[in-house]
Specification:
The protein contains two helices and eleven strands; from the N terminus they run H-E-E-E-E-E-E-E-E-E-E-E-H. The chain is α+β, with helices and mostly antiparallel strands and about 190 residues long. The chain starts with a helix and ends with a helix.
Length: about 190
């Protein structure tokens, strides 16, 4: 009986320690989807939180999975300093735009092309927090920006406001002209 109690306590303690270990993992935060115009530059934002202070062993890996689901391609690597890819589609087209002290490990992709459509992953390890979530950003490169409902709403409100100002101005001008014409008639009537 005593062995079972000890074993049960050990199992409960082990489950609690495992939960604490998982809670101590690095959490990575990214936008889920980004839309950018062909030929422009786009910042892919990635931030992280860790239960441990930022260490010298902190590493960041950015990878790319094309829409055709071909193999992953390395995009960028950081360990004490940024390392650009020596080859591949992002060679000379990616720069570091992060700030480790602010838990920001973002990059900028230059001169976006339709072939850049796909999913970018951002993975951060901060020893001893080596496990955690992997951030994913789906990038869609479009030929031109489509107007969203909010753009249409803004244009409609702006147009209505301008139209209202024109109508109010016209009413004020008409009233002033009528008043001047009436005053002129009264002066003529007084002189007669």
């Amino acid at each position: 009986m005593r062995g079972r109690t000890w074993l049960g306590a050990a199992l409960v303690l082990g489950a609690q320690l495992r939960a604490l270990w998982l809670a101590a993992a690095v959490e990575v935060h990214t936008a889920k989807e980004v839309v950018a115009v062909n030929g422009t530059n786009q910042r892919l934002k990635c931030t992280f939180s860790s239960s441990s202070p930022v260490s010298q062993q902190l590493s960041v890996s950015w990878n790319f999975q094309p829409e055709d689901l071909s193999s992953h391609e390395p995009v960028f690597y950081y360990l004490r300093e940024p390392y650009k890819p020596p080859s591949g589609r992002f060679k000379e087209r990616v720069t570091w735009d992060g700030n480790i002290e602010r838990n920001d490990v973002s990059i900028i992709i230059w001169n976006l092309q339709p072939s850049d459509n796909g999913t970018f992953t951002c993975q951060v390890t901060n020893w001893p927090d080596v496990y955690g979530t992997i951030g994913e950003v789906r990038l869609r490169v479009v030929q031109k920006v489509n107007f969203s409902e909010i753009h249409f709403l803004a244009v409609a409100i702006g147009s209505a406001s301008v139209l209202m100002i024109i109508v109010v101005t016209a009413v004020i001008i008409c009233r002033q002209r009528r008043r001047k014409a009436r005053d002129k008639r009264l002066k003529v009537a007084d002189t007669e």
